[in-house]
Design brief:
Layout lengths: L4 H8 L4 E6 L5 H14 L10 E5 L2 H22 L2 H9 L4 E4 H12 L10 E2 L2 H21 L1 H14 L6 H14 L5 H10 L15 H26 L6 H18 L4 H10 L13 H29 L4 H10 L1 H25 L1 E2 L1 H12 L13 H9 L2 E4 L7 H9 L6 E5 L14 H9 L8 E6 L1 E2 L4 H14 L2 H4 L10 E2 L14 E7 L9 H18 L3 E3 L5 E3 L5 E5 L6 H10 L4 E3 L9 H14 L4 H9 L7 H8 L6 H10 L6 H22 L2 H12 L1 H6 L4 H20 L5 H13 L17 E5 H4 L4 E6 L15 E4 L3 E4 L1 E3 L4 E3 L2 H26 L2 E11 L2 H9 L11 H12 L13 E3 L3 E6 L9 H6 L1 H8 L9 H8 L5 H5 L3 E3 H12 L13 H4 L38 H14 L8 H14 L4 H4 L4 H9 L1 H8 L3 E12 L11 E14 L2 E8 L6 H23 L3 E8 L4 E4 L1
Parallel strand pairs: 1-7, 1-8, 2-3, 2-6, 4-5, 6-7, 9-10, 11-22, 11-24, 14-16, 14-17, 15-16, 17-22, 25-27, 28-29
Antiparallel strand pairs: 12-13, 18-19, 20-21, 23-24, 26-27, 27-28, 29-30
Helix pairs in contact: 1-2, 2-3, 3-4, 5-16, 6-7, 6-15, 7-15, 8-9, 8-15, 9-15, 10-11, 10-13, 10-34, 11-12, 16-18, 20-36, 22-23, 24-25, 27-28, 28-29, 29-31, 35-36, 41-48
């Protein structure tokens, strides 16, 4: 491969800290791979691949990088047969090519002992973390309310952020503060420093504060824009003598604005701004029509300036004096201190709760890694490396970081700690930094981009890759045109100069059938009749029609090798800034045109009708007295009531719908099919409620699917595959919820409600392959790193969403935490200077990032770029665009594209020629003003030719005979129906339960069978805990206080918990026929001392019961056995005879754990311990015979040795029972 000079320098450079500023499509990944290969094949300074640390942004990127390196090594091996290359291929699986989080996990697992962390930790899922976070927040808040001293901290916060509905807003505020702080390298330091910032002394001047400069910058941008508006107006006014009086007035006002713009000190700026006055304009008489039009335009410009001054600058920033601003900061000091204290307490409690569960999250990965890499003496100003960091630093010859522009402060510090001053290779593009919402910090890249030298021998060097091998020159010309005008220091923090421009590395195909051409800008005029559609729905129709035109044109798309292929749906992508409320409308518009499409949405899961129906059913099972969920279930296909039936049901009585349902059913005729449906639902519903109390949520959902056949029903609906996948995902997420240790339907529904309230919607399950021939709809963020022959960027006219800037609390990594001032008497919020400064800074940073988002969108196109947006006031807005709108004032993507287009076409396009149907085309740009497309539908001509279509449109039956082939297809039944509902694997307990369900309609209540000490010992034999344990580990009453390790809503210890403790004791206690109560107590105390048992566990173990067992004949035989297995796990394939509802001849996988198995002579003796409070041998045999039989079969099949005797040992009866 031929490399450019810049690429070759990036590949060959050594012993430098190198920043590779790689523009879109410049081959940065290829350069990175080639650099790695060259380092591995370097014969002068050979290294192993394990001596490189390669950090990528995503797991997919890491897998692609590893694959590319492997392919390159294989190619080199086939050419050279070098044994060193064989070694590198062998080492490739253990190479550190991963995301930063994966690297952090590697560091933590290697050095876990340095931070006292259990190495068996797991990465918790987001849903489980959200539930735990909410629980911990509630506990922390409760502890504050219960403590008088802490309550004094919480009350002002609750008053400021709370509502009549509780502390949810305050909890969310604390949670947001915690999350933001964790994106920084020193979260606790940042929080405390932010609170300290509210301490302003008496000598503080407002110009000394860091928050003033962002406000000044914002004011200067407004004044600059307004001065330019006056210049436009004065240009017209100076052309005619009739405007001379007005010209003088406009000039005086412009001079006042210029004077304000020249001030540097806050108080001087305030005086100048407040001194600007807009006196009444004199009436101009005798103007002709043209002059009147000019005069109205000039007055409109002046009104815009007046609005800026009198509605934005004067009342918001300059109505208060400097001292009043400082007083506002001081007034919020107590609130700020309380917030920080509360957040730190929550952080500590949340960390403890995660540790107890053995969980960590992604931010924990970074911070635990940082804790390992930093010395205890390290401070924010002096991050000293630990011994572990020094070891890692010596291990890695080079640290290569991809997508460096998307890192944050924590990740940057980790990379610095494991690298040296001359072995870091950072790759990225500041123009593609679009992840501020993930708390990325683009200033890390920008600072190096500005300060690193371009000299070849520099210690800290930057190399620019500007040659684009993805897009044709016409696309690059459009990108360069837009951003050379829009990307300025004022607007984006950088200028789009020669280094930033894109240079063509690919030529356009010289073939008339190729689809490429000038970049197309389509402005959809939505000012007319909208047919009841929103503006975006009208735009979506045009997008669909434009795609139809492209496909019908017969044009060809270029492959990467330069050859052409027919344009198809998969070559086209539609990009939008946000998928919410947009993707569905685009899909609908495309469907109307018969265009297949797919959108990978990150929201909308809970809005899917099949998910809503199942959640409504779960809510009813939890509490059937809820009318809204019950109405949803009854109206759904699960029951099938129509609106009339629901109304009649409502009028049947004064009770809830569930209470009225039997009465309504009784009122129906026996011949009415609806009566049968309702009675069937009532019967099943009662069974489901009983089942929900005994089984987990996932098992309940599985049964609902089986009983209702709803999964099969939704398969026949449009998008059936996706709907089935959504229902399966609902089951999977319930399984994850229970795997995380949570239980209960009510709590699960609480989690779902909280996720919906917080907007943490889950993505619908993905069922479409990336290679399918469909038009893809995706967000611009999702498209990053991808490319398509045809890119349509839609919704270009939408104004940017800045609602997050209205929050009463704002965060910034450098400026800290901005709080609005709160008046508790009037319950009103006022901006403080800190809040205003952070708001101005965030607004500017947001605008800069929106420019970068547009850059990413436009650089995805290979052959053709189409920009589409809607506007109802196109002519009015064209005047702004044509006058060269300041990019810093951009409020939509059109505000950056249209000034470029207007400048390109010049006077050819103006406000008067901007009308629907107009179009202009040049070599680079094509501009069209288009009307919305009418919806395609059934015309009268079509309907008249086919009467069945008319009947279908009316909703009537068409009386079309069912074809035989369709009848056969729909009547087909699977030959093995039981296999469909049989799980791939069962536990012994599940088999036992299914067996008993077959034998009896209702299981015996196990709670009544729970073992209690009173059931097995006389009162005088129940010893206090201190008689079992040393005094320091004793508790007051082990049979009444629930151990913390099993804390739940119960207020007593369950029999299952006592049984678990006994089983654990039988697993660990040394087998001995001469055991006494004293020896058992001593051994148990030793277990507690070593940490094998917790004091709470040991308090549940009844020593006399254990002593009784070891004195028994069975205990003595066990102690004398030469081969003893306790808690013996097994997995084995057995015949299906023991399992109900299984196909004849089918085998099933079963797993379980046998309590005790010991050898005597030529056979095994199998023992199962039971703590149930059953009173006869027969009861035990009936209840557990199937379980013991399965154990027996499994042991004999695995070992090939027969089980001679099988026993149950009852701790309640204190004797063995032979089965």
């Amino acid at each position: 491969m031929a490399w450019t000079d810049e690429q070759q320098e990036a590949i060959d450079s050594r012993k430098q800290t190198l920043l590779l500023s790689a523009a879109a499509g410049s081959g940065k990944t290829a350069v990175l791979v080639e650099r790695i290969i060259r380092r591995l094949l370097d014969k002068t300074y050979p290294i192993d691949i394990t001596e490189l640390l390669v950090v990528t942004f995503t797991n997919a990127a890491a897998a692609e990088m590893r694959d590319r390196v492997g392919q390159a090594l294989m190619k080199a091996l086939s050419e050279t047969k070098d044994p060193r290359i064989e070694r590198q291929l062998a080492l490739l699986p253990s190479a550190h090519i991963s995301t930063l989080h994966s690297f952090c996990q590697y560091v933590i697992r290697k050095y876990f002992y340095t931070i006292d962390l259990d190495p068996t930790f797991s990465i918790a899922g987001q849903e489980e973390l959200n539930l735990l976070r909410r629980q911990v927040l509630s506990d922390v808040f409760l502890s504050y309310y219960e403590d008088e001293e802490k309550a004094s901290i919480l009350y002002p916060l609750a008053d400021m952020f709370g509502s009549d509905r509780g502390d949810d807003v305050l909890m969310d505020t604390v949670s947001r503060m915690y999350t933001y702080a964790r994106s920084l390298a020193w979260p606790e330091h940042w929080l405390k420093s932010s609170a300290m910032a509210y301490e302003t002394g008496p000598d503080t001047t407002i110009d000394d504060l860091p928050w003033v400069q962002p406000v000044k910058d914002f004011v200067q941008r407004i004044l600059k824009k307004d001065i330019a508006l006056y210049e436009r107006a004065l240009y017209h006014l100076r052309q005619r003598d009739d405007f001379s009086a007005a010209c003088d007035q406009f000039s005086a006002e412009q001079v006042a604005l210029k004077a304000a713009a020249g001030e540097k000190r806050w108080d001087d700026l305030r005086c100048r701004i407040n001194a600007v006055e807009f006196s009444r304009l004199k009436t101009l008489r005798g103007l002709d029509d043209d002059d009147k039009a000019i005069w109205e335009q000039c007055k409109a410009l002046r009104d815009s300036v007046k609005k800026d001054l009198t509605k934005t600058l004067q009342p918001v920033y300059f109505s208060a004096s400097s001292e009043e601003w400082l007083d506002g900061i001081r007034a919020m000091k107590t609130i700020m201190d309380g917030l920080v204290t509360l957040t730190l307490d929550f952080a500590q409690a949340f960390s403890k709760a995660k540790r107890e569960k053995g969980w960590i999250d992604f931010s924990d990965l970074e911070h635990l890694c940082l804790k390992i890499l930093l010395s205890p003496e390290a401070t924010p100003d002096n991050p000293v490396r630990s011994a572990a960091a020094e070891e890692l630093r010596s291990q890695y010859e080079e640290v290569l970081i991809d997508e460096y522009q998307d890192t944050n402060g924590v990740q940057e510090l980790i990379a610095r700690l494991v690298s040296s001053d001359d072995n870091r290779f950072m790759v990225g593009d500041i123009k593609q930094s679009i992840y501020r919402f993930r708390l990325a910090d683009p200033t890390l890249f920008m600072d190096k981009y500005r300060t690193f030298s371009r000299e070849a021998e520099a210690h800290q060097r930057c190399i620019d890759l500007g040659r684009n091998f993805r897009s044709v020159p016409l696309v690059l010309d459009a990108v360069n045109d837009v951003f050379s005008r829009a990307m300025t220091m004022d607007a984006a923090g950088m200028d789009y100069g020669e280094r930033e421009r894109l240079y063509a590395g690919r030529t356009a195909p010289d073939d008339p059938s190729w689809l490429g051409g000038p970049t197309e800008v389509d402005l959809v005029d939505t000012s007319g009749d909208n047919e009841g559609l929103t503006a975006f729905e009208q735009e979506a129709r045009f997008v669909a029609s434009r795609i139809g035109e492209l496909l019908e044109s017969g044009k060809m798309a270029a492959r990467k090798d330069g050859t052409l292929e027919p344009l198809s749906y998969r070559h086209i992508v539609i990009l939008v800034r946000s998928m919410k409320n947009k993707a569905d409308k685009l899909i609908q518009a495309l469907q109307e045109r018969g265009i297949p499409s797919y959108a990978e949405q990150r929201g909308g899961y809970f809005a899917a009708v099949e998910v809503q129906v199942m959640l409504a059913l779960l809510r009813c099972i939890d509490n059937p007295e809820q009318d809204l969920p019950m109405a949803a279930v009854l109206r759904s296909p699960l029951v099938g009531l129509d609106e009339t039936a629901l109304a009649e049901l409502r009028l049947c009585g004064d009770g809830t719908l569930w209470q009225n349902l039997p009465v309504f059913s009784d009122s129906l005729d026996d011949s009415d099919p609806l009566k049968e449906d309702i009675d069937d639902f009532i019967s099943h519903f009662e069974e489901w409620r009983t089942y929900s109390r005994r089984q987990g949520v996932a098992e309940l959902i599985q049964r609902l699917y089986a009983d209702t056949a709803y999964v099969d029903f939704v398969a026949a609906m449009p998008g059936g595959d996706l709907r089935q996948a959504n229902l399966k995902a609902l089951y999977d997420r319930a399984q994850q919820y229970e795997d995380a240790g949570f239980r209960g339907l009510f709590r699960y529904l609480q989690l779902i409600d909280k996720m919906m309230e917080d907007g943490l919607d889950l993505a619908p399950a993905k069922v479409v392959s990336e290679k399918e021939d469909v038009v893809r709809i995706m967000s611009i963020h999702q498209s990053k790193g991808l490319e398509f022959p045809v890119v349509i960027v839609a919704d270009m006219g939408k104004e940017f969403n800045r609602m997050d800037l209205h929050e009463p609390i704002l965060f910034h990594n450098e400026l800290g935490i901005g709080l609005k001032q709160y008046d508790s008497a009037w319950r009103m919020f006022y901006p403080t200077l800190i809040w205003s400064g952070i708001e101005a800074k965030l607004r500017w940073e947001g605008t800069a990032e929106e420019e970068r988002v547009l850059y990413v969108a436009m650089t995805r196109a290979r052959d053709q770029l189409i920009l589409i947006g809607h506007d109802s006031k196109a002519a009015d807005h064209w005047s702004r665009w044509a006058d060269g709108l300041d990019p810093a004032q951009g409020n939509s993507y059109f505000d950056w594209v249209m000034p470029t287009v207007a400048a390109y076409f010049g006077n050819e396009v103006n406000a008067e020629t901007i009308r629907a149907g107009a179009s202009w085309q040049g070599d680079r740009w094509k501009l069209r003003i288009v009307s919305p497309e009418p919806a395609p539908g059934l015309t009268a001509e079509v309907l008249s030719g086919e009467p069945r279509l008319e009947a279908l449109r009316r909703g009537d039956m068409t009386d079309t005979a069912i074809p035989d082939w369709l009848d056969r297809q729909l009547s087909w039944q699977y030959a093995f129906p039981k296999a469909v509902t049989t799980a791939a694997k069962f536990s012994v307990s599940e088999v036992k339960r299914k067996y008993h369900e077959l034998q009896s309609e209702e299981l015996a209540e196990e709670k009544g069978l729970a073992l209690s000490p009173e059931a097995i010992l006389p009162p005088e034999a129940i010893l206090p805990p201190e008689a079992i344990l040393p005094p320091e580990t004793a508790v007051e009453n082990p049979f009444e206080d629930l151990p913390p390790w099993l804390a739940s809503d119960e207020d007593h210890v369950s029999g299952a918990q006592r049984g678990t403790a006994l089983h654990k004791a039988m697993q660990y206690i040394t087998p001995a026929a001469d055991h006494t109560e004293g020896s058992l107590r001593r051994e148990l105390a030793a277990f507690v001392q070593r940490g094998t048992f917790s004091p709470e566990e040991s308090s549940l173990i009844y020593i006399p019961v254990l002593a009784s067992f070891w004195r028994s004949e069975l205990g003595r035989r066990m102690a004398a056995s030469p081969e003893l297995h306790r808690e013996y796990p097994f997995t084995v394939l057995l015949a299906g005879g023991a399992l109900p509802d299984i196909e004849d001849g089918e085998r099933f996988l079963i797993q379980g754990i046998i309590d005790c198995l010991f050898r005597e002579d030529d056979g095994w003796v199998l023992v199962d311990y039971k703590s149930d409070r059953l009173e006869s041998d027969r009861d035990f045999k009936e209840r557990y015979a199937i379980q013991l039989d399965l154990y027996k079969q499994a042991v004999e099949q695995i070992t090939g040795i027969p089980v001679r005797e099988t026993y149950i040992y009852s701790f309640h009866l204190q004797r063995e029972i032979m089965i």
